[in-house]
Amino acid sequence: MTTTKQQVLFELLTHKGDWLSGDQLAADLEISRESIWKAINSLKKKNHQIESRKNLGYQYIGTPFLDEDIVHYYLDEELVDDMFIEQEVTSTQHLAKQYLTTHQIDKPVFFAAEAQSEGYGRRGRPFYTPAASGLYFTVILPNTTNHWDQVGLITTNMAVVIAQTLETFFPNAHIDLKWVNDLFIGKKKVGGIITEANIELESSSASAFIMGTGLNLTTKDFPDHLTDIARGIDETASVDRNLLLATLVKNILDAYYHGDSAALLTEYRHRSNVIGKHVTLKLGNQTIQGTAKQIADDGGLVIEDEDGVTKSFTSGEVTKTYVQ
């Protein structure tokens, strides 16, 4: 059931940038002027920036924080079974995994947080996730194929979707993709994706895929050890993170259920910043060096080694790239 506060917020969002008088809000929502006033004050206490002017009424400006109600407003609630938006968590990936220990899902569920104390990427490597300047979220995707071996291709497909979506919000940015899960601008990383499978041991299949995304949107300051390798997409930009989150989730789900995998893989290859370069691939305790020739149809990285032998790898991490 929608509360009065939510009704007022949604009406202000519908007319964002316009002035709405208290009388107009009361008439449109069929509630009292006093209820409008109380709702406005309650929203302001939750850090919603609402300007009030005599003879004009109220105008919604925005909020610097992620807000579950706003994301609900922008996102078709039919797309997801539930959403959780928190202030600070260990990691949204941890929350999603905990959720799956007590829930079976038929529809996607997602988790987002302002900040993470233990954000991580591939191989458990820490990912810097400061509050307010980034976007950190995990989507649980029900497995519609009963196979668990699609994780790599899901990551490549969703990397393209995320890059394309970000470029609509940051039109001056061009985002490249480093196999398999990193988003780059130039030589610096602006985001990463991690996709893990929730395995059912009895059937040896994945009941769901857990796709976590960490994005440095406007982050300016990084720890010393990251300053040479990481950056924000645009530290001077002003971006509606609630709208961006809702749009990313919508586009991810649309691509997951209805996307053209072949077209997405073609775009991934186009955006790849490793194809044609000499690479070092770390695979467990093994190191492979050679030229990245192509991204295979299953999302694997095709490398021609120094002996001229070509092989496709579906796991591992590219640790170095350079032009020969």
TrEMBL record:
<keyword id="KW-0067">ATP-binding</keyword>
<dbReference type="InterPro" id="IPR008988">
    <property type="entry name" value="Transcriptional_repressor_C"/>
</dbReference>
<feature type="binding site">
    <location>
        <position position="116"/>
    </location>
    <ligand>
        <name>biotin</name>
    </ligand>
</feature>
<dbReference type="InterPro" id="IPR045864">
    <property type="entry name" value="aa-tRNA-synth_II/BPL/LPL"/>
</dbReference>
<dbReference type="Pfam" id="PF03099">
    <property type="entry name" value="BPL_LplA_LipB"/>
</dbReference>
<dbReference type="Pfam" id="PF08279">
    <property type="entry name" value="HTH_11"/>
</dbReference>
<dbReference type="GO" id="GO:0009249">
    <property type="term" value="P:protein lipoylation"/>
</dbReference>
<dbReference type="Pfam" id="PF02237">
    <property type="entry name" value="BPL_C"/>
</dbReference>
<keyword id="KW-0436">Ligase</keyword>
<feature type="DNA-binding region" description="H-T-H motif">
    <location>
        <begin position="22"/>
        <end position="41"/>
    </location>
</feature>
<dbReference type="InterPro" id="IPR004408">
    <property type="entry name" value="Biotin_CoA_COase_ligase"/>
</dbReference>
<dbReference type="InterPro" id="IPR004143">
    <property type="entry name" value="BPL_LPL_catalytic"/>
</dbReference>
<keyword id="KW-0678">Repressor</keyword>
<dbReference type="GO" id="GO:0004077">
    <property type="term" value="F:biotin--[biotin carboxyl-carrier protein] ligase activity"/>
</dbReference>
<dbReference type="InterPro" id="IPR036390">
    <property type="entry name" value="WH_DNA-bd_sf"/>
</dbReference>
<protein>
    <recommendedName>
        <fullName>Bifunctional ligase/repressor BirA</fullName>
        <ecNumber>6.3.4.15</ecNumber>
    </recommendedName>
</protein>
<feature type="binding site">
    <location>
        <position position="189"/>
    </location>
    <ligand>
        <name>biotin</name>
    </ligand>
</feature>
<dbReference type="InterPro" id="IPR013196">
    <property type="entry name" value="HTH_11"/>
</dbReference>
<dbReference type="InterPro" id="IPR030855">
    <property type="entry name" value="Bifunct_BirA"/>
</dbReference>
<dbReference type="GO" id="GO:0005737">
    <property type="term" value="C:cytoplasm"/>
</dbReference>
<dbReference type="InterPro" id="IPR003142">
    <property type="entry name" value="BPL_C"/>
</dbReference>
<keyword id="KW-0547">Nucleotide-binding</keyword>
<dbReference type="GO" id="GO:0003677">
    <property type="term" value="F:DNA binding"/>
</dbReference>
<keyword id="KW-0805">Transcription regulation</keyword>
<comment type="function">
    <text>Acts both as a biotin--[acetyl-CoA-carboxylase] ligase and a repressor.</text>
</comment>
<keyword id="KW-0238">DNA-binding</keyword>
<dbReference type="GO" id="GO:0006355">
    <property type="term" value="P:regulation of DNA-templated transcription"/>
</dbReference>
<keyword id="KW-0092">Biotin</keyword>
<dbReference type="InterPro" id="IPR036388">
    <property type="entry name" value="WH-like_DNA-bd_sf"/>
</dbReference>
<keyword id="KW-0804">Transcription</keyword>
<dbReference type="GO" id="GO:0005524">
    <property type="term" value="F:ATP binding"/>
</dbReference>
<comment type="similarity">
    <text>Belongs to the biotin--protein ligase family.</text>
</comment>
<feature type="domain" description="BPL/LPL catalytic">
    <location>
        <begin position="78"/>
        <end position="260"/>
    </location>
</feature>
<dbReference type="GO" id="GO:0016740">
    <property type="term" value="F:transferase activity"/>
</dbReference>
